């Protein structure tokens, strides 16, 4: 057995002897001998140098506490649409005072986003829902734009008729319109820990719209005290 193989076998033995509580891996989820050393290790062959771990279950401390106390997670998912694809406009400058201001079209777009979110909440939950403070929120934005019926001159031939959405507005400017959901879907946009903006391929047969999907989870209020302890 080579030095590399001996070191690999020693590291695997240390990983197997590590208590499950320190690694957050239950014994039942530990990989078998065949999964750790390969199918030839059971026949007396040397363990290979490259060791591959199988997928293991990782239980976070707060999830284990919630499961022990019987706390049920309430999942919220709200999807709504706006009939346009726009981005945040650069703030205007007041040359008299030197300050900046939000342009009228951006303010109108943010107000429409907030209105459509409230209407989607009423249709789905019967009331307006808001993510509690400091609860992580996931925001997914899907932008669908119409394309021309004929191939534009700037588009290479090998991309036609796919028409990727490589024109304005920028993806980051589309995401900046989520400021209109402050105080409506969440208390502060700093709660958005996962943000995904997808500019789908353009199609002249489809409708131009932007879909917003907001997701978050919160524990049941009746057993919140048990989780805090």
Report on this model:
This protein has 7 helices and 6 strands. It has helices at 3-17, 20-23, 33-37, 61-69, 104-125, 171-175, 224-228, and strands at residues 73-82, 92-93, 100-101, 137-144, 192-199, 209-219. The strands form 2 sheets. It has a 4-stranded mixed beta sheet. Strand 4 (137-144), helix 6 and strand 5 form a beta-alpha-beta unit. The two termini are 52 Å apart. The model is unreliable at 18-66 (pLDDT under 50).
* Full CATH superfamily name of the largest domain: Holliday junction resolvase RusA
Task: Specify the CATH architecture of the largest domain.
Answer: 2-Layer Sandwich
Which parts are unreliable, with pLDDT below 50 for 5 consecutive residues or more? 18-66
How do the strands line up in the largest sheet? 1-6-4-5
The succession of helices and strands, N to C, reads HHHHEEEHEHEEH
SS content category: alpha+beta
- CATH first level of the largest domain: which class? Alpha Beta
What is the CA–CA distance across the termini?
52 Å
From the alpha carbons, calculate the radius of gyration and give it in angstroms.
26 Å
What shape does the CA trace take? Answer: extended
Q: Tell me what portion of residues adopts beta-strand conformation.
A: 15-25%
Helix content: 25-40%
Strand and helix layout:
Blueprint: H1 3-17, H2 20-23, H3 33-37, H4 61-69, E1 73-82, E2 92-93, E3 100-101, H5 104-125, E4 137-144, H6 171-175, E5 192-199, E6 209-219, H7 224-228
Parallel strand pairs: 4-5
Antiparallel strand pairs: 1-6, 2-3, 4-6
